[in-house]
Write a structure and sequence with these properties.
Largest interface: A-B, 34 and 32 residues
Number of domains of chain A: 1
Number of helices of chain A: 9
Keywords (chains A, B, C): Cell membrane, Membrane, Transmembrane, Transmembrane helix
Number of strands of chain A: 0
Main location (chains A, B, C): membrane
Radius of gyration of chain A: 17 Å
Oligomer: homotrimer
Shape of chain A: globular
Family (chains A, B, C): Belongs to the UPF0126 family.
Order of helices and strands of chain A: HHHHHHHHH
Membrane topology (chains A, B, C): Multi-pass membrane protein
Organism (chains A, B, C): Paenalcaligenes hermetiae
Chain lengths: 205, 205, 205
C-alpha cells in the first residue's frame, strides 16, 4: 500500500521532470507526453522485457499512462511556477529512484532470480527511464557521466536484499533501505559527490 | 486482403523514405538496408515486444525483410529519379501511417487489451519505426518536434475503435478511419498544422 | 566447449574496447561498466528479446556480468598500457564478431526458424552490441558508415549454414566459417575495404 503510494508519487514526479527536459528541447505537446510516459514507465518496461515478465505494468494499469501524460501537460501549462520548485523536484526524483529500485528488486525476487539479477533489476527499474529520456533528447545519458544515481540504486537494492535475507518485517525492510538511499542521494547532491571519471585519449582511427 | 496490400505498399514506401534518410547521412549500403528494415518493420516489432506478442511479424514472414531491403537498394540505385517524387512519397508515407495504425489496433483487440492500450498499440505501430530511424541517424525524433504524425495516428485509431464498437462492416470500419486519417494528414501538410510547442528555459544545472 | 572459450574471450575483449570508447567520452566508472556490459552482452540480448528466447544469457549466467564489468574496470585502471595493444584488440574484436555470429545462428537453428532469420540472428548477435554502444555514446552507429562488420557476419553465418546443411562434423562446421570470417575481416582492415556509400542530397525540408 505505502509502496504503491510512493510509486504513484514517483511516476508523477518523473513525468514532470521529463516534461521540463522536453521543454528545454522545444518539443511539441505530443513529444512532451511521450517523453514523460517513457521516462516514468520506461525503466519498469525495460526490466520486464529483459526478464520476460509479461504483461508490462502499464498494459495491466493503463491509468498510469493517463496519469503521467496528465502530469506532463499540467507541468507544461504551469511551467513558470515549476521554475521555483527545483528542490522539490530533486527530492521527489530521489524518492522515485529508491522506490523504483525496491519495486524492481521485489519483482526479481518473486521470479526467483539470482542475487546479481535482483540487484540489477532494481538498478534497471530505477535508472533506465532516465537513460531512455536522454537518448530520445539526443544526449549522452547523464547516468554515465555525472550522477551518483546508479550507486544510490545499488546501495538501496543491496540493503533491501540484506533486510529480506535477515527477515526484517515487511515495512522496515522497505523503509530502511529507502531512507538510507535517500540520505545518500541528498548527501551526494549537497556535497557534489561524483564517481571518478575515466578519461582516455588515443590516436586510434 | 486489402489491408495486406496496403501493408505491403506501406512497408515498401517506408523502406524507400528511410533509405533516402540514410543517404543524407552518407551511410553505406548495409546501413541503408538496416535503417530501411528497422523503419519499415520496427514499429510493429516494438509493439510486439512490449505486448509480448510472439513471434514477430518478420520472423513469421522473412520475405518482408527481403522486400524492404530490396526496396532500399532500388531506391539507392535510382536516387536521382526519387528526387522528383517527393509528393508521392509523402502520400505513401501517410498511407503507411494509417495502415500501420489500424493493424496495431487490430492486434491489441485480438489480445483483448484495454481501450487505452489498443489506441497506444496503433500509435506505436504507426510511429515507432520513424522514432527508431531518427535515433539511429542521431537526430531528435521528428515525431516529438514537428509533425502531426502522432495525432493523425490517434484520430485514426480512435475512429477505428468507434467503428468496431458500433459494428460497422469490416471494410467500412477500416476504410473510413483510414480515409479520415489521410485527409487529416494531408491538411496538416498543406496548411503546415503543428501541435503547440512547449518551450522552457531555466538556470538549473 | 571450444565455442564457450571463444565466447568468454570475446565478451571480455568487447567489454575492454567498450570501456576505452566510454573513456573517450569521459564517462564515470558506472558508465564504463554499463557500456561494457551492454556492448558485450547487448547483441545477444537484442536477439533473445526479438526472438522471444527467454531467459536471456546473462540472467541465466550472471557471472558474465561480473566478468565484463571486471574487465572494464581493469581496462580503465591499466589504460596507459592498453594504448599499445590496438592490434590485439582488433584481433580479439574480430574473434568476437565471428563467435557471436555462430552462436546466434545456432540459437535460431535450435528454435527451428527460417533460413533468413538464422542469418539475421547471427548478424544481430554479432553487430547489435556495437550499435547500442554507439547510440549510448551519442554517435551515428559505425556499423552503418564504415566497417565491413555486417558483411563479415553475413559471410560467416552463410558458410556456417552451408556447413550444417552438408553435415560437416561439428568442429569443422564451426571453425571453417569462423576462419574465413576472420580472414575476411583482417583483409578488410588491411586493405581498408569498404561498402560503397550512398550519398544523397535533396532540398526537401
Amino acid at each position: 500500500m505505502l509502496l504503491l503510494t510512493f510509486y504513484l508519487i514517483a511516476i508523477t514526479a518523473e513525468a514532470m521532470t521529463a516534461a521540463l527536459a522536453a521543454g528545454r528541447r522545444d518539443m511539441d505537446w505530443v513529444g512532451v507526453c511521450v517523453i514523460a510516459c517513457i521516462t516514468a514507465l520506461g525503466g519498469g518496461s525495460v526490466r520486464d522485457v529483459l526478464l520476460g515478465h509479461y504483461p508490462l505494468t502499464w498494459v495491466k494499469h493503463p491509468e498510469y499512462l493517463w496519469m503521467t501524460a496528465g502530469a506532463a501537460i499540467f507541468t507544461a501549462l504551469t511551467a513558470r511556477m515549476m521554475r521555483h520548485l527545483h528542490k522539490l523536484f530533486l527530492a521527489l526524483d530521489a524518492l522515485g529512484l529508491v522506490t523504483f529500485t525496491v519495486i524492481g528488486c521485489q519483482i526479481a525476487i518473486e521470479m526467483e532470480l539470482p542475487v546479481t539479477i535482483i540487484l540489477l533489476s532494481g538498478m534497471i527499474t530505477g535508472c533506465a527511464g532516465g537513460v531512455l529520456r536522454d537518448i530520445l533528447c539526443n544526449d549522452i545519458p547523464l547516468l554515465f557521466r555525472k550522477e551518483m544515481y546508479a550507486s544510490v540504486s545499488m546501495v538501496t537494492g543491496g540493503l533491501y536484499m540484506l533486510a529480506i535475507h535477515f527477515e526484517l518485517n515487511e515495512l522496515a525492510s522497505m523503509l530502511v533501505p529507502m531512507g538510507v538511499g535517500l540520505l545518500f542521494r541528498f548527501l551526494a547532491l549537497r556535497f557534489n559527490w561524483q564517481m571518478p571519471q575515466f578519461v582516455y585519449r588515443d590516436d586510434w582511427k
